[in-house]
Inverse folding.
């Protein structure tokens, strides 16, 4: 009888201890998840992925192309139904060209979109080096999800956004996850499903991803992946508008010779200076230049393109006079001309002297800018200032 009681007591103790022995921590599960994907060592050898395949949206299937990098950069070209969409992300900020919103030029991402792009840019799983990224994880338990036994893990990203990940308890690969997604720039709850896991170069990747949100469905089917291809880093910079690209010859650091037109009919040298011209936005170049014309002149010139008037617009701030002048113009052949004849500031007195800015003799490493003046409403122009630009070595 005593032996039976001891046996029963041992079984009770075993049953009570067994769950403790078998219980897995969230770190254990994530370690097995990373191992199931091929192991951290194999993933560390990959700097970038060049991905191609098919993307289905609005019931239309088209080719897609995307790039992901180890540092969290992401670039994609795809169709959303009938529209061709470009998008890029550098790990912190990004841009998109999305005709669905009738915005045909590149625009910055809003906060909701940045959260989504953090997810799109994920190399393969957010649990890879999650501590280094500042993410936090919590095991919420085990359950069945659509007939599949899963571990449910709550992921809180470093930016505060929360996701729920469902990892297959047999394979330790992701079955699905729930997160905040975006629909036409507005937040929308979404969920993603993963399937067709394949081993490529020792790492395991889902070749099928289906995402649902706002009663919409997106399907990504990967057809090929190339690793560690050379990446053009400029892809992640906000794209320039087609029109502002025509002014790209202005970009750079320049040595500038400054001259003025004399009453005797010739150019008189005032000296030399330097100029820095760079892209400040998708549709704007900015120049900063300082020179002496009797008094010191410090100018900031913003070059942009007005899609309504289909003309370029220059806003010139003169620090000496604390004024801003606006010019409009366009290319005439290879030369560029802009003036302020048609610009009205709503002033009571009519303007009697107008100015023109012209850019000519454009080469790969040089160009000439001239400022002219007119007292007859732009019918004739008289030389005033001349700037000869030569690109710095």
């Amino acid at each position: 009888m005593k032996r039976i009681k001891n046996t029963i007591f041992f079984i009770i103790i075993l049953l009570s201890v067994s769950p403790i022995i078998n219980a897995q921590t969230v770190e254990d599960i994530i370690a097995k998840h990373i191992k199931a994907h091929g192991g951290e060592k194999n993933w560390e050898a990959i700097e970038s992925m060049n991905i191609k395949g098919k993307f289905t949206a609005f019931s239309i299937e088209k080719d897609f192309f995307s790039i992901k990098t180890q540092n969290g950069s992401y670039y994609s070209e795809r169709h959303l139904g009938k529209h061709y969409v470009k998008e890029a992300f550098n790990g912190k900020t990004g841009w998109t060209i999305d005709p669905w919103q009738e915005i045909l030029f590149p625009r910055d991402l809003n906060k909701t979109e940045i959260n989504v792009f953090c997810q799109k840019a994920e190399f393969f799983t957010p649990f890879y080096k999650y501590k280094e990224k500042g993410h936090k994880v919590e095991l919420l338990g085990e359950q069945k999800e659509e007939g599949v036994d899963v571990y449910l893990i709550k992921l809180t990203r470093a930016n505060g956004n929360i996701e729920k990940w469902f990892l297959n308890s047999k394979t330790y690969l992701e079955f699905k996850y729930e997160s905040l997604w975006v629909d036409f720039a507005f937040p929308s709850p979404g969920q993603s499903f993963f399937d067709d896991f394949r081993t490529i170069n020792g790492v395991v990747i889902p070749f099928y991803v289906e995402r649902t949100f706002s009663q919409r469905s997106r399907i990504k089917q990967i057809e090929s992946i190339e690793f560690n291809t050379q990446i053009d880093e400029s892809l992640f910079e906000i794209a320039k508008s087609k029109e502002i690209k025509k002014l790209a010859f202005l970009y750079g650091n320049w040595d500038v010779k400054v001259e003025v037109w004399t009453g005797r009919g010739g150019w008189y040298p005032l000296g030399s200076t330097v100029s820095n011209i760079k892209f400040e936005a998708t549709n704007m170049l900015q120049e900063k230049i300082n020179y002496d014309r009797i008094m010191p002149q410090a100018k900031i010139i913003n070059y942009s393109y007005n899609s309504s008037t289909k003309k370029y617009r220059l806003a010139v701030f003169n620090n000496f006079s604390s004024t801003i002048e606006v010019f409009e113009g366009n290319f005439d052949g290879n030369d560029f001309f802009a003036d302020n004849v048609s610009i009205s500031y709503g002033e009571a007195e009519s303007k009697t002297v107008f100015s023109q800015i012209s850019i000519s003799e454009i080469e790969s490493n040089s160009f000439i800018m001239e400022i002219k003046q007119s007292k007859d409403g732009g019918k004739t122009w008289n030389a005033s200032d001349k700037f000869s630009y030569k690109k710095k070595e």
About this structure: The CA atoms of residues 55 and 220 lie 5 Å apart. The chain has six helices and 23 strands. The two ends are 99 Å apart (CA to CA).
